[in-house]
Amino acid sequence: MHYHDKQIREQSVELLRPVFVHILCNPTMDLFESCKQDTWQLIIKSNNTTDLQIEILLWLCTNRADTCIDANYRVLELADVALLRRDKELCTSLVPFIASLTVQLLEYGHEPMQNFCTILNLFECCHNYIGNITLLLMAEIILICPAAYLRDALQICTVIVDTMPCHVILFNTLAASLLKWLAYPSLLCSDALVVAKELLIKIMSQKETDSGNGTISNKMLLIFSYSNRYIQFYMELIRSIYSLKDGTLSWMDNLSLVSIDLRYMCKLVLCGIFLHSNDPPVVQKACYILVQIAREINSFSSHMLSLILYKLTKTRDSSTLKYLLLSVPEFTMTKENLPIVIHTLDTLLNSGKPLKYFAIQLYLKALEKEPRCYRFISTALMDTMEKDRSWQSDVACARAIKHICEYRPEHGEELVPLLSQILNRCVDLNSGAASALALDSISALCKSTVIGIYSTWQVLAPKMRKEKRTVVLESLCDLFANIPSYLFRTSEDYDKFIDDVVTHLWGYTVCDDARVAKAAFKALKFYQVEHITLRALPPSFLSGIKIQLTPGKSNDENSQLMYSLQYIPGTCWIQMLKNINRSILSAGGDLLIFYIEEELNGFRSRIYTWPQGEPQNFKYLPERSVIRAIGEYLRRSDKIDQNNYAIAVECLRVFAHKYKKPLPNIKWDFLKETMQISEAAKEYSLSIVSRHCQISNSAKLLTESFLSMYTSISEAGRLLLEEKHIVFYSNLEELCQAIQPANLKQFLETSIHYAIDQILLNNQSNFKSSLNDKSVNLFNHIMSSYVTALKNNEIQIGNRTLLTTILEEISEKVDLTSKYFEKYFMAVMELLIKDVDRMTSPNTWWVVTPEKLKTAVAIRIQSAFKGNINAPFAWLNELVNTTESNPEMRRYLLQSIQKVHTDLRAEKSCDLEMQKDWILDFIRHIDALMIETPDNNNNIIFYCDILFVLVICLSGMECFLPEKELLFTSQDVRIRLFPQAISTLIDRQIWKSIARQIMKWLNYMRNSSLPDVYKLAFQSALILLRHEEDYNAEWKNYLSVKTLIEI
Hints:
Largest sheet: none
InterPro entries: ARM-type_fold, FOCAD/RST1_DUF3730, Focadhesin/RST1, Focadhesin_C
Low-confidence stretches: none
Domain DUF3730: 306-524
Shape: flat
Strand content: under 5%
Pfam families: DUF3730, Focadhesin
Protein name: Focadhesin
Mean pLDDT: 88
Domain Focadhesin C-terminal: 615-950
Helix content: 55-70%
Number of strands: 0
């Protein structure tokens, strides 16, 4: 570099670059420190070495303690030279660089004093626009800084707060870090805490944000950010914060869906939003995300607890106060937090009555998180019940006891005296809720065998037989419902006990209180019909039983003959429907549905086969059959008598239920007359025949007869308005198995076009949202039916083709990218791949219209990433070629990819192994394109854009954008986020297996003929991955390529 030949001297940096890079960027640390220091001093003190300096700094590794310390020395030495030269741009860029290295040094347990001193010195020769990024990094430092160095760290923060403009949220981010120290003060840093309090006062007085936009124009710092994950990540966050304005809540909604690693990196900014905002939804959402983080990363919980307690002292909004208090018990998971949480709850318990009852609820939440909290809630319950005899106290305590009995039954035995106390003293109407909760607690203890139900009922029975309160009787019915699942000791009279319980329940079904009767019917569904005797039924249910009277015997003797029957005759169930309160008729019907389900389970397949023709009635079933009773009632009842209508409709509803097996065969012609009773009767009748048309010829003929009405325009219009088609769609799967395509076609086409026309009409006319919602719900119902039918491999091939054709025709006529037609894509996903390929292939169309192309894009992207397509690249290839000269359509393609992956993340249905395959598939095909069509840069660039969007979405990085649209509209945003996104993915353990492939490909791409902005993105991504283990094996190959530097 000091050679006498001028020409050689001018080229010396270029000639010696490999030597310098090998000495200073060697991650193996084989060379002596003195050699490195001398080499570095030579470079930084020579002229025209700026690019080389930057290149070396970019590739310095910091993933181990020794490499981090080495890199830190190099940067500090450069800072000294920059200060001597008063190079303001360089000094400015080095402040965040040194601060980020300090974070890593502290994580490795190295002392930070030299870095602190250098930062303070650099402040004298730097621009003030680095306040935001430096403040964020200092907040990170303060969290992990040893007490001995805290005062020095706070001096840096004081300079920033006093002299540099910053966003008010970032000031509060620093405050969040300070509060951790102030909440847990240490004698080792008493002087520092004085400074911290002064800083906190200054910060809390800051109400306005600086007028800038958070952007940094320092090119050197931007280049350094390429190699530093902290700087790059925080610069992106700062951009978002300045752009949020009124969109903070939606931004946090998106952020709450990303993986824990990204949420944790955002913790300090979220803390800043939490402390600064006074908007209840924003505060509560920030708290929710931060509590999520604390649950998964326990080391953060003590910090978050201190913030919540501080926020409680500053908040005046009642809903926020309640939310924050409900969050406090979440932090009992760590030993150091437990005393603080319990002290807070004890304070509430000793307050006025409303807070006292709320405190008991909080103790329960604490018990959910930490079993050791039982002794605290036990003491609180006993003290409260002893000192406060109000019904509110009893309800609060009973609710807590119920929760403990359900989720911590091991403590249940200790709580039995308290339950007894509640049942004995809660006798008035107001305390009915407490008694009901006590019964629920007893049920839970019986379920976990802490107490026995038989002996418990012996104690409860005298009191419960007199009970009249509705809410208590409802809980008693719930207790009875659980009895069949309890364990019984062999010495107990099980049959007698069950008979007693069932008799009670049947008695409640005819009581005047509809709520109790409904609860009783619900409980009876847990008892097999075999467990019911005729004596258990109310007398009014027995009036339809026909027995052969014995001449000369008294009525009592004839009654005994009736009661001697070993089964319940089916006619009793019709009498039940006739004699119960009409307002709970559906509850009785639900019980019959349960009995029929049990009856059908006992049938063999031969019961559905009738070679001689369908039977005219159900009399071939036994007299005890519920199906026989309902079927015969429907067949023989008086259709003119309006008193029978309600019972008949309920019987139809019972038969129309979708059982796992079909009902036994019968000639269903009697339904022609029955369906004339009412519109509801018609719907249920149509549901029955459409459900059974596969096994019943009469049902099939009735169904086809009704479907044929859709061939008449006037008749179809009436039917569509009456919405009878909804019934058929509920059973479309069965229809597609039994009905020929020719008989289904008109119905399917007419009804789907009607649904679509209604949506379009309501949308154009700006009708009320309720009307539009109704038409959209109808379309969604139809599409859901298509999904169910297409999933069934037993439907007729012709009907599968018909459904496919209809879906294809819809795609040609309607703009399916509208939000109203989203369910359409669910149906298309169930089509055969060859059919989807045909209907979305522009090569098969006569005319390529924007609408059709948009639909094809949406379908193919849904299929590629949500379906079972193994190679998404090949699936999208044709569309990419078709949209080559259409920038708007290409943006839509990127938008569709983003939307699909946003949906997958929200549904939490991501297959991580498949995600890796997607990335590798794109990489392989981009490589192939680079070889096959090296001159077609437009397509290669667009595939790179698709890859960028895919990687950014998979990592979750797009959630930091203030506007989602930026990802598919802005090339700059994609290029900026890609390096951080790929680094985030490779940091996750499941992606480590493909790290070497990714790194080699990135190295190949940064040498390609693509535009420099893309090569810089690939280069930056590779630099961020230099901390991976695979880098050590290949570092010479990567550094043999000169780094692209643009200043």
